[in-house]
Design brief:
The complex is a heterodimer of chains A (263) and B (277). Chain A has 263 residues and is an all-alpha fold. Chain A has helices at 2-32, 40-52, 65-96, 98-111, 120-127, 130-155, 159-168, 172-210, 215-224, 228-255. Helix content of chain B is 36%, strand content 23%. In chain B, helix 7 crosses helix 9. Chain B is globular and about 55 Å long. Classes of the chains: A mainly alpha (263), B alpha/beta (277). At the A-B interface, helix 7 and helix 8 of A face strand 6, helix 3 and helix 5 of B.
Chain lengths: 263, 277
């Protein structure tokens, strides 16, 4: 039993202490605060209430937390999916052809540092709707990591592998499917992970501006209702969903990474 | 086949190679003239940096010479091709494919639907699979056919690399220090396997090495190269030992020791390596 206790104390106790610290500071703030900052206990009971019926719908401005998360995820999936569809092939081309690399690199360097929210008005103007504009914002913010990582991956394919392709005289199709794609996959998945992470950050902000159904809009709506308990619940929900996405993509990436074991 | 094609199967005529670097031109090789007969086993030996691998890459067609030309089977070498298979120094197996798939990739290209086979009928999947298994069998790796390179030892990886090259039934087998990264025992075992395989297939082999014993044991001809930059062929030694050769009986054979001494003299007396920093 001593090893069991040792594992318990070194792996289980620290995270709980971290959580306890957070709840402690929060309680302190809510006790000393003069503007009705909710206590952890109140928030917990409110959360039980919120999660007991996550999929209710009383019109477009009053829906369960489940629907809000679901709408946000749909937007992220759509914007991210379109970005992957454009960004990954573009990354392959930029990585494979120096000319394209020199052509696109200045554009990418110029546009990448721009906050994706700055593109929201352009989206509203062009697509004439809040929902497509939000998707457009997600598209813009998630395309850069995928283009850049894929291009870097293609440029870093070991010369040895390309020599193998040349000696075996493989067709361009075989080169792409048997050598380039598997070699680039780990880089590409890193790009995907960064893109999804950014997209999940940006969707909350974008929805605050566009409205409709979504976790970001829910936060803003509850602020207008001065329902701080729900805002805190929303923050936890956003965190948990982000964590799950990140974890799933890391698992995916490790499944497709072939480390060369040096003998 | 006429005699000029068998005795002058591979011809290297007045080849020079200069690399363009940031610090200006770097002359790697100059005045290389060499003829290799069909079925001959030739090793290139010399200190590091003498351009052995550069010469091998030129024969492989991976790089083009700055001057001179290379001719294989009466045709100028214009690029890499499966008739000149390469065993790379670091095996260069694709880590995401199994050993079987690594070998199959080359087999499929040479003998399969997409292959360029002059005169020979294309083979179906079953025949290609059979060929692949036969190649793995030749290097005694049938048991590891469906393992990935990451799951097998360095010596086994190198054997898969050899199997991949041999399975294509190349006219010329080019090997760049194929056993350089292996321990002495594994190296000896693979050298013996290679001797047996080459005796069987009658392949023409050009092999880069820096191991004197390896060169004498395996070669019909040892090409000794001077130190770089601007390295060239210093001397060619014909090794006239009867085959099959056995490392045990050769160990105290006077002829073997004589050849061995000739190479050592060349490398350590006449081309004593000066470390440049």
């Amino acid at each position: 039993m001593p090893t069991f206790l040792k594992n318990l104390s070194s792996h289980v106790v620290p995270p709980f202490m971290g959580l306890a610290l957070l709840v402690g500071i929060w309680s302190l703030v809510s006790i000393t605060s003069t503007n009705n900052f909710p206590t952890p206990t109140d928030t917990f009971w409110q959360a039980v209430d919120v999660f007991s019926n996550p999929f209710y719908s009383n019109g477009p401005n009053d829906q369960g937390v489940g629907w809000n998360v679901w709408s946000s995820l749909k937007r992220v999936a759509l914007g991210f999916g379109l970005a992957a569809l454009v960004g990954i092939p573009l990354g392959f081309l930029i990585g494979r052809f120096d000319f394209l690399s020199r052509m696109f690199n200045p554009l990418i360097s110029l546009l990448r540092p721009v906050s994706p929210l700055a593109w929201l008005p352009i989206g509203l103007l062009v697509f004439k709707g809040a929902n497509p504009a939000a998707i457009w914002t997600i598209f813009i913010c998630s395309i850069w990591p995928m283009v850049i990582n894929t291009a870097v991956g293609v440029q870093r394919v070991p010369q040895d592998y390309m020599n193998v392709a040349r000696v075996l005289n493989l067709s361009e199709w075989k080169v792409v499917t048997k050598i380039l794609f598997p070699a680039v996959l780990p880089y590409m998945l890193t790009g995907v992970r960064l893109a999804v992470g950014t997209a999940w950050l940006v969707i909350v902000a974008a929805e605050m501006l566009t409205g409709g159904v979504g976790i970001g809009f829910w936060v803003w709506d509850e602020w207008n209702n001065l329902n701080v308990k729900n805002i805190i619940i929303a923050i936890f929900v956003i965190g948990v969903v982000g964590l799950v996405l990140e974890f799933a993509l890391i698992k995916l990436a490790t499944a497709f990474t072939f480390e060369e074991v040096q003998s | 086949m006429n005699t000029s094609m068998t005795t002058k199967y591979l011809q290297i005529q007045g080849v020079a190679q200069t690399f363009k670097t940031a610090k200006g031109d770097f002359p790697a090789l100059r005045h290389i003239n060499l003829t290799v007969s069909k079925g001959e086993f030739v090793t290139l030996i010399g200190h590091s940096g003498c351009g052995k691998s550069t010469l091998l890459n030129l024969i492989a067609g991976l790089t083009m010479p700055t001057e001179g030309n290379l001719i294989c089977a009466n045709r100028e070498i214009a690029g890499p091709g499966p008739e000149r298979a390469v065993v790379f120094q670091n095996h260069s197996l694709l880590p995401w494919l199994t050993c079987f798939e690594n070998v199959y990739l080359g087999v499929e290209r040479v003998f399969g639907q997409s292959g360029v086979v002059d005169g020979k009928p294309k083979e179906d999947k079953a025949q290609l699979t059979l060929r692949t298994h036969a190649a793995l069998e030749m290097v005694s790796l049938s048991h590891a056919a469906f393992k990935r390179p990451g799951e097998i030892s360095g010596g086994m990886k190198q054997r898969v690399g050899i199997a991949r090259a041999l399975a294509m039934e190349p006219q010329v087998l080019l090997m760049d220090e194929p056993f350089g990264a292996l321990d002495a025992l594994t190296r000896a075992k693979l050298q013996d396997e290679l001797l047996a395989i080459v005796a069987n297939t009658q392949s023409t082999v050009v092999m880069v090495t820096h191991d004197v014993d390896e060169a004498v044991l395996l070669s019909d001809k040892i090409v000794m190269m001077t130190n770089g930059p601007a390295a060239t062929i210093g001397e060619v030694l014909h090794v006239d030992l009867p085959r099959p050769r056995s490392r045990v009986t050769l160990a105290d054979d006077p002829a073997y020791l004589h050849y061995r001494k000739a190479v050592i003299d060349f490398l350590y007396t006449r081309q004593a390596h000066v470390e440049k920093h």
